[in-house]
TrEMBL record:
Keywords: DNA-binding. GO terms for molecular function: DNA binding; DNA-binding transcription factor activity. It comes from Granulicella arctica. CDD domains: HTH_TipAL-Mta. Gene3D superfamilies: 1.10.1660.10. This is DNA-binding transcriptional MerR regulator. PROSITE patterns: HTH_MERR_2 (PS50937). InterPro entries: DNA-bd_dom_put_sf (IPR009061), MerR-type_HTH_dom (IPR000551), MerR_fam (IPR047057), TipAS_dom (IPR012925). Residues 6-75 form the HTH merR-type domain. Pfam families: MerR_1, TipAS.
Length: 264
């Protein structure tokens, strides 16, 4: 029997076209841990590890978070086919959305070129037209990967229907709710009190306005929140973080919700 071919981490990184740092990161996350060690404790990778790494890189390229990749790869093959198809469909929808966004930017550029032929057209207005399309694209493309194709489409329709004034009003209502929860916390109000249950009811009404009662939208939102450590450093992510409740407010809501469920 031929001995198994193994690779030290530097060799494996070069073979796979990744950095040693990335391999260390995957090992810490238990996403790709070499099954072998040398007598001196060095990591030793084999061909099977290369196959798993290629899966990781493909799924990462498609936009999945490392948490999602781990869940997919660690699911037994007999139970993995359907989740994988759903994941691919979601990523395909996100890529279509990205392509649509790029098409919008191209059309904006073409429109700007036509308007630039008019000497009377202010230059700043041309840049504003292009910038508006770019910002719209950047604000939506990374969030939609967390939603199913149907939920992403529903969200796009809802965004189109929301005027800036209505968005500001909804944001103010959420912030008012968080302030009232903080006030309840400051007064040491029990989460299972009548006031706590009333705050839960307000929270659920506001959440229902966002999801429109669609459980798929809620699932996508939860996936996005759970993956917040991988959010990009952009204006959209900053706005979402700023709109989220403080941990203590979230904990109060969770306890109050459990009390509501217990009492029916």
């Amino acid at each position: 029997m031929r001995p198994m071919t193994t690779f030290r981490i530097q060799e494996f990184a070069k073979l796979a076209g990744v950095t040693v740092r990335a391999l260390h990161h995957y090992d810490r996350l238990k996403l790709l841990s070499p099954a072998h060690r040398s007598d001196r404790g060095y990591r030793l990778y084999c061909r099977e590890d290369l196959g798993r790494l290629e899966q990781i890189l493909v799924l990462r390229y498609l936009g999945l978070s490392l948490r999602e990749i781990a869940a997919l790869l660690d699911t037994p093959a007999s139970r993995n086919a359907e989740p994988l198809r759903v994941t691919f469909a979601r990523q395909q929808a996100a890529l279509h959305q990205r392509r649509d966004g790029l098409d919008r930017i191209l059309r904006a550029l073409e429109h700007a070129q036509q308007r630039a032929q008019n000497p009377a057209e202010p230059e700043w207005l041309l840049y504003q037209t292009i910038l508006k399309e770019i910002q719209m694209q950047e604000a939506t493309e990374w969030t939609e990967k967390y939603y199913s194709p149907k939920a992403a489409e529903a969200l796009r329709e809802r965004r189109a229907a929301l005027t800036p004034e209505l968005q500001a009003e909804i944001g103010a209502r959420w912030q008012s709710l968080f302030a009232d929860i903080q006030n309840a916390l400051d007064r040491q109000t029990p989460p299972d009190s009548a006031e706590g249950r009333a705050l839960v009811a307000r929270w659920m009404r506001l959440a229902d306005e966002f999801t429109n009662g669609d459980p798929e939208i809620n699932k996508g939102y939860q996936r996005m929140i759970e993956d917040k450590s991988h959010w990009p450093d952009d204006e959209m992510a900053a706005r979402i973080r700023a709109s989220m409740p403080k941990p203590e407010c979230q904990a109060f809501f969770n306890q109050a919700l459990q009390a509501c469920l217990r009492h029916g």
